[in-house]
Amino acid sequence: MTATIGYLGPKGTFTKLAVDKTFNGEVKHSYSTIPACIDAVNNGEINIGVVPLENAIEGTVQLTVDYLVHQVRLPIMAEIVVPIQQHLLVHTSFTGKMADIKEVHSHSHAIAQCHQYIHQHLPNATLHFTSSTGKAAELISERKGEPVAAIGNQLAANIYRLHTIQKNIHDFPNNHTRFIVLSKQQELVKIAHPVQSEKTTLLITLPSDFAGALHQVLSAFAWRKMNLSKIESRPMKTGLGNYFFIIDVNQPYDEVLFPGVKAELEALGCQVTVLGTYPVYQLDHL
Amino acid sequence: MTATIGYLGPKGTFTKLAVDKTFNGEVKHSYSTIPACIDAVNNGEINIGVVPLENAIEGTVQLTVDYLVHQVRLPIMAEIVVPIQQHLLVHTSFTGKMADIKEVHSHSHAIAQCHQYIHQHLPNATLHFTSSTGKAAELISERKGEPVAAIGNQLAANIYRLHTIQKNIHDFPNNHTRFIVLSKQQELVKIAHPVQSEKTTLLITLPSDFAGALHQVLSAFAWRKMNLSKIESRPMKTGLGNYFFIIDVNQPYDEVLFPGVKAELEALGCQVTVLGTYPVYQLDHL
After folding, report:
1. How many CB pairs under 8 A join A and B?
2. How far is A246 from chain B (nearest CA, A)?
3. Does B254 touch chain A (CB under 8 A)?
4. B91 vs chain A: nearest CA distance in angstroms?
5. How does pLDDT run across A167-197, given as a tens digit for each residue?
6. Which chain B residue has the Cα nearest residue A244?
7. Closest CA to B77 of B256, B252, B271
8. Is B232's CB within 8 Å of A227's CB?
9. How close, in Å, is residue A26 to chain B by CA atoms?
10. Which residue of B has its CA nearest to A34?
11. Of B271, B253, B277, which is closest to residue B213 (Cα–Cα)?
12. What's the rounded Cα separation, in Å, for the pair B191 and B182?
């Protein structure tokens, strides 16, 4: 059986780039929103869904986390980490210099990520916002001979046959974006890259808002020397003043430490849900 | 002197709506990206900047926080919390029923926030993505007599003279968005609303990644019974494995408790920076 993979589209986005680099041979379907992709996995329409978890361009942590927490609980099967690399793309017919460029098109967050570069090297260009970086590349591909550019990734350059006039124009060199792979069928999730580390993501809700509650929660991990790589509080949607926490623990779920943490936290009145225990894959280049 | 306020535009966005409801009489300038708005405050081009801090549509926590932490340190003078209310908007010439609507236009995150509503009430509509909710409203205003709709807020409906065919179509009733007011000139920040609470935001960097480091940091707050309303870890841009924390403490900076926390954490090798101690304004309706 060939697995089907859904991803947050359209084509030419970082999500598509990550899916193409990670999976081979599966049938791929594009979805236009994060909830639509998650629903499709839940309904059995597709086997695997890939959505951004931390990515300032194609999605937000909040939307993915909130939908998983409040609407559809699907296990996280893997995490894919990729560097964000933004390039300046022009039509192949463009023969001018960088300073000649009059318009720069991209998603507003991609433009923001290249803010200082644009300020220094493209001071005469006006900024134009598109719904995605892929859309910007498409637009530039239709403007032969004009001094206009898009900001986007290598995949967008390839799809729309654009010339990369300058590589890596993003202001911060160590920007990464994280994707999660959701599925109910672990046996179908086949990733050929080496596993970089293993992680467990927990959802913890506190019984009430009180001084030191989080401190007590962290004690359960600290005295076991379980290292956390991420912690984030998010308000519950039920009203103001109620919070849940998403905690990433840098080790796989086991039969001793994690059940111990869970029992202690439940005794304190917390609810503990395992959102996934899964391998992390780091892609160095795209 | 009349203060000048910069905000993340374009017109018809939630940021503009929040600025209009919060400030009166000041001169207002729209900026197209978060870094451009923050730079303008830093350069003295404007007196006050308003940017989203937690908002799935017009910006991300990450972009604002990263720019403030890594590039331009400006004090936070106030926080504005507003409910997210999405409406279904049509041209005033539209006389059909909801089920007749063939196209829905909006920012992908706004469409995602109304995912279940669209699924139930607009099953025949195709989805079209725009760079902002304001842009979607503008587009619909130009399509007289056609069965097309935009998702956006009341301000967008007013500016583009659209008819609100259905109010509050967002799936989660308790979604809020938070904006921060940045300025070097406290005396110019005049907000007429009642203060809901006071808050202090700290940036804490850990000396290294070790089990229990965050637990130790939180001890300093816990034994003083200082309540935290938000905690978020973010990777430093200097490489993998280094983190900083943004912590919101539910009380104003004082001369005893905060200096005590700071001294203890510095003794542990942490760096502590006060990003702001400021009032919170909650707007109930827009």
Report:
1. 155
2. 10
3. no
4. 22
5. 999 987 777 788 999 999 999 999 989 999 9
6. B230
7. B252
8. no
9. 26
10. B112
11. B271
12. 13
Residue A170, C-beta contacts closer than 8 angstroms, at least 6 positions apart:
A84, A85, A86, A113, A114, A117
| Residue A155 and residue A133 in contact, taking contact as beta carbons nearer than 8 Å | no
Which is nearest to A269 in space by CA: A226, A207, A177? Answer: A207
Partner residue opposite A112 with nearest CB, options B35, B108, B172: B35
Residues A131-170 pLDDT 10s = 888 899 999 999 999 999 999 999 899 999 999 999 999 9
Q: How far is CA B244 from CA A172, B55, B76, B146, B196, in A?
A: 16, 21, 18, 51, 28
Instruction: Say if A32 is an interface residue toward chain B (CB within 8 Å).
Output: yes
Whether the CB of B265 is below 8 Å from some CB of chain A: the reply is no
- Put simply, the chain B residues between 75 and 104 with a CB less than 8 A from any chain A CB are none
Q: What does the alpha-carbon distance between residue A89 and residue A100 come to, in Å, rounded to a whole number?
A: 14
* Residues 6 or more apart whose Cβ sits within 8 Å of residue A96: A147
Q: Give me the tens of pLDDT residue by residue for chain B, a chain 286 residues long.
A: 789 999 987 777 788 888 998 998 889 999 988 899 999 999 999 999 999 887 766 666 678 888 888 888 899 999 998 888 899 999 999 999 999 999 999 988 889 889 989 999 998 899 999 888 889 999 999 999 999 999 999 989 999 999 999 999 998 777 778 899 999 999 999 998 999 999 999 999 887 766 677 888 889 999 999 988 888 887 766 554 567 888 999 999 999 999 999 999 999 889 999 999 999 998 876 5
Whether A5 contacts chain B with CB within 8 A: no
Which of B118, B170, B232 to substitute to test the interface with A, most A CBs within 10 Å? Answer: B232
In terms of Cβ atoms closer than 10 Å to its own Cβ (0-12, 13-18, 19+), residue B236 is: middle
- Cα–Cα distance, B137 to B160 (Å, whole number): 6
Write A257-266 long-range contacts (CB < 8 A, 24+). A257/A224, A257/A226, A258/A200, A260/A220, A260/A224, A261/A220, A261/A221, A261/A224, A261/A226, A264/A220, A265/A204, A265/A217, A265/A220
Instruction: Map out the domains of chain A with their CATH numbers.
Output: 4-84+175-188 (3.40.190.10), 87-166 (3.40.190.10), 197-280 (3.30.70.260)
How would you classify residue A276: left for phi > 0, otherwise alpha for psi between -120 and 50, otherwise beta?
left
